[in-house]
């Protein structure tokens, strides 16, 4: 076996189950689609109005003029809501056979038993399974799907929902806000340390489908939580769309770690907006692994608004044949004495293209800010490609084929990270959401 053969991935999660949905909306996107989703959920008036305003924003937006080509997305050819169960379950054995078999083959029940404090499993549009260890409830930790949170905890949801990522932020944030379903809500009270991770798993089963989960995490003062999300989908010839929104609030002296293993099948467009706000002495860590999808556009960000707040992003991407992984990070230093660290690692193979798109912004009042950015890329053969935006960021590239050559020049090895960051500061926020 050659070194290149070692980088071939057998996508064992590409199986599909029969469509047994019991509730759906007609294909295509309109204001009536939004109303139907809200009606199915029997939502409060405030959320219905949020959705309708977001739809009006969406129709005024256009696809981004930068980044990967998204023109193949046909919004009128997708189904925006579908569910296969009448209710949510807290026992794997009670799930419908096809849904249960899906999660058995993926290995989620075993992971819950051995490693996790709580599990949420979404199948198409709705969370069908959810279970949290009793001790978390005793500590006041809330871990539930977002729909339940809107119904049961509106006093927690309303002050935060859509404040970090408003509907007008970008086209796909507007779309998510209009048609969102499922996702996770996490609240950790002051001083509570959640020792085992919480995990959410997202599965697309349907063809020509749009999944739009919404996640909101609030870590109160001095708390800690590690949230993990994973995802898979069947292999179809047609395209599906995944456009999630994640908002995280890290209070003073709190710490949140958010780990993603994105393993969508290669017929999925994965277009996600993720953003966190860290207050004084707060720590936000993104671990972002992207190995699936046809196209990914994802740039987790941290707003460091409190003194001594710290943000980290570890971005890992593999772009195989026909894949485009456009990933990166954004750091906004608003308060003094804040620190951030961004490390990007990517591999490109065949016609795969991995791009790092980064932004570091230091506010004039954020004196004594410290920033570290490192970007490494591995090119396997002459057809693979890597890019860095802005183009002169510090990047190390390893070439594995003797007939390969670089198409651009990078900064010399003696260039300091400070000069590299000056380039980041000139990059406009519109170039990554």
Describe the overall structure.
The chain is α/β, with parallel strands linked by helices. It has one domain (5-431). The protein contains 9 helices and 24 strands. The protein has helices at 31-41, 45-60, 97-106, 108-115, 134-138, 146-152, 154-157, 171-179, 417-426; strands at 23-24, 82-83, 118-123, 126-132, 142-145, 184-188, 198-203, 210-211, 214-219, 224-232, 240-242, 245-250, 255-262, 268-278, 283-290, 295-298, 301-304, 310-319, 324-333, 339-348, 353-362, 370-379, 385-389, 395-399. Strands 5, 6, 8, 9, 11, 12, 14, 16, 17, 19, 21 and 23 form a 12-stranded mixed β-sheet that branches. Strands 4-3-7-10-13-15-18-20-22-24 form a 10-stranded mixed β-sheet. Helix 1 packs antiparallel against helix 2 and helix 2 (45-60) packs antiparallel against helix 8 (171-179).
């Amino acid at each position: 076996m050659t070194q290149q053969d070692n980088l071939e991935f057998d996508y064992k999660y590409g199986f599909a189950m029969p469509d047994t949905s019991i509730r759906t909306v007609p294909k295509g996107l309109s204001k009536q689609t939004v109303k139907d989703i809200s009606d199915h959920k029997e939502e409060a008036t405030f959320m219905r109005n949020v959705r309708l305003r977001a739809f009006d924003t969406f129709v005024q937006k256009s696809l981004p003029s930068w980044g990967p080509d998204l023109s193949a997305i046909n919004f009128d050819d997708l189904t925006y809501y579908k569910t296969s169960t009448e209710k949510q379950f807290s026992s794997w054995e009670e799930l419908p056979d096809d849904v249960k078999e899906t999660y058995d083959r993926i290995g989620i029940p075993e992971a819950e038993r051995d490693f996790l404090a709580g599990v949420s499993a979404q199948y198409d549009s709705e969370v069908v399974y959810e279970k949290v260890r009793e001790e978390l409830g005793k500590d006041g930790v809330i871990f539930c799907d977002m729909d339940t949170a809107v119904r049961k905890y509106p006093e927690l949801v309303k002050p935060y929902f859509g404040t970090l990522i408003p509907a007008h932020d970008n086209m796909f944030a507007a779309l998510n806000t209009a048609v969102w379903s499922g996702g996770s809500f996490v609240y950790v009270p002051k001083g509570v340390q959640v020792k085992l991770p919480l995990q959410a798993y997202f599965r697309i089963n349907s063809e020509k489908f749009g999944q739009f989960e919404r996640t909101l995490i609030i870590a109160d003062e001095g708390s800690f939580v590690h949230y993990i999300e994973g995802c898979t989908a069947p292999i179809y010839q047609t395209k599906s769309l995944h456009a999630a929104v994640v908002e995280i609030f890290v209070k003073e002296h709190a710490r949140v770690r958010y780990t993603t293993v994105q393993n969508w099948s290669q017929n999925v467009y994965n277009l996600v907006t993720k953003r966190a706000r860290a207050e004084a002495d707060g720590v936000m860590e993104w671990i972002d692994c992207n190995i699936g999808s046809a196209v990914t556009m994802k740039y987790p960000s941290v707003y460091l608004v409190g003194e001594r707040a710290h943000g980290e992003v570890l971005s890992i991407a593999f772009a195989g044949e026909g894949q485009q992984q456009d990933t990166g990070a954004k750091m906004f230093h608003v308060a003094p004495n804040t620190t951030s660290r961004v490390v990007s690692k990517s591999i490109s193979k065949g016609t795969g293209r991995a791009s790092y798109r980064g932004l570091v912004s230091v506010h004039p009042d954020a004196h004594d800010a410290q920033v570290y950015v490192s970007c490494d890329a591995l090119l396997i053969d002459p057809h693979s490609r890597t890019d860095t935006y802005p183009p002169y960021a510090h990047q190390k590239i390893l070439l594995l084929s003797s007939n390969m050559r670089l198409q651009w020049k990078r900064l010399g090895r003696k260039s300091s990270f400070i000069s590299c960051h000056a380039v980041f500061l000139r990059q406009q926020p519109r170039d990554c959401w």
